[in-house]
């Protein structure tokens, strides 16, 4: 349980971080909160030659308001996200999902950006970022670029982040109008990863559902949107029956894996049930 | 555990068989794989698997234990171990090729056994990784074969154009150019040999032609159509181009040239296209690099034709990657959180017990005092 020896770099600005990553060679690894990386290193499944710790990069921390967009620094810890008044006001879904992430100690160190860049399919925040159409701002040797969440997650533990690139901040569009949100997570043990989870944001207008956005956690190698359900809900009446009917197609287009926690067909069933619950709660029924 | 995968490559079964058995050619198509040495049917190499923060490098050896050309079936036995001591991987990879016209379906059955920590990562992950790696391998292989095809088309076009001038001359010329195929691998060598043979035959043919007194001019007339036909046929199969074209171009003049089909499976290797397709003789171009449709394991691999050499790209490493598993004897998945949890439990059990004892004492003392 002792990691292999590695070089340690702790830059204080984004530019320094990008440079440190570039100089770190092939086996360099960026560390945000270290809540996934350190366990893997202790198991010696990872043995990076250099670890670049972003913990002292002050400009990557905190939440700011930029008009229609909420900008969350990648190094903002889960605890800070939960307590942040701007997040509570404009992106409550993020706060709600973050509250279910691991335990208090992990939330104290783990970061929003770290969870997204790690891209664990069972992680809670990627599906939320996807449901909210967030954009990732990525810094690399060639400057900065912005990647929409739907393009950011590529595969199991894999994102579009190239080697040498660092996730700097996440731009979350504010929800305009009457939105209700809900994060429904299913796991067997408190603080464990999701077996399946559903993030839902629903906009109501004149008693019916005008728009719904649904993100699915752990229903495939990447977070997914339940597009069939979203389409069925658009313009539907805000009644339990209509929601239940739409939720039945929640698992369409997903490819959940089977493991000791759940078989694929059970996960599909969970996706339908959790979608119904999440949308019902988000619609205020 | 057993993994089943299948993919399609855009070449006929005989050529696919040859290419897929050429371990030096297919190894670079495998993501993260590197060959260290090849001795006959034995080879050693490394496979690097990278998955998020996880990084494994399996080093080991592999060998062909069976090569059944008639059934197009190959079996590779591979074993290796992680460089950092994270356990071992062993695999028996059975590949079967099934010809489907101008394409070949490759069915790969991998019997994989992984020990150590990586095995504890749950089946879902391993399946995903195996499928992902094999998918990348198939795409790369198809792209490589497709490139050969594109070059082949250009070559065929030039052959057809030349044929209009003189059949035998062209045959000789083409054969010569094939003979000079650059590249120093075994495939190139085969092509060159085929080229030499074709050139000699063509030369003999033209000699005979002049003996009989028929000039190239009149005989050449039918040749354009012949060649064009040949070229069109050639278009459907990816690789055989130049060499095939050469002997066939010779044949209108005389039958001396050998039939092209066996000559050179991989003529296209490394050759630059010699001329753009010209006139109606140019065969239609096929998209060069389209990834072949990949199907996941369908039913039992067809028994007949196919064999599969290649998918196994793999030396040992493939093992690690291609692996997919099924229930039998799966190692218990490890849950990082559980690992941390039990560690935390043991760490905090002492203090927690002490705290509980103190609390109990205080409560007892409090109650006694009240009495």
TrEMBL record, chain A:
InterPro entries, A to Z = CO_DH_flav_C (IPR005107), CO_DH_flav_C_dom_sf (IPR036683), Diverse_Substr_Oxidored (IPR051312), FAD-bd_PCMH (IPR016166), FAD-bd_PCMH-like_sf (IPR036318), FAD-bd_PCMH_sub1 (IPR016167), FAD-bd_PCMH_sub2 (IPR016169), Mopterin_DH_FAD-bd (IPR002346)
Q: Where are the transmembrane segments?
A: none
Keyword Oxidoreductase attached: yes
Pfam families the UniProt entry points to: CO_deh_flav_C (PF03450), FAD_binding_5 (PF00941)
Q: Which residues form the FAD-binding PCMH-type domain?
A: 1-177
Q: Which UniProt keywords apply?
A: FAD, Flavoprotein, Oxidoreductase
GO molecular function per UniProt:
FAD binding; oxidoreductase activity
What is the protein's given name? Carbon-monoxide dehydrogenase medium subunit
Species, as recorded: Geodermatophilus obscurus
Automatic annotation (TrEMBL), chain B:
Alphabetical keyword list: Membrane, Transmembrane, Transmembrane helix
- Annotated segments matching region Disordered: 191-225, 248-326
Q: Signal peptide location in the record?
A: none
Pfam families linked to this entry: COXG (PF06240)
Q: Which Gene3D superfamilies match?
A: 3.30.530.20
Q: Which residues form a coiled coil?
A: none
The record lists the organism as Geodermatophilus obscurus
InterPro entries listed in its UniProt record = CO_DH_gsu, START-like_dom_sf
Matching entries from SUPFAM superfamilies are given as:
Bet v1-like
Give the transmembrane ranges: 348-366
In Swiss-Prot or TrEMBL terms, this protein is called Carbon monoxide dehydrogenase subunit G
Which residues fall in a compositionally biased region of kind Pro residues?
Answer: 274-286, 294-303
Q: Out of the domains of life, which is the source?
A: Bacteria
Is the keyword Transmembrane helix assigned to this protein?
yes
Q: Where is the composition biased (Low complexity)?
A: 248-273, 304-320
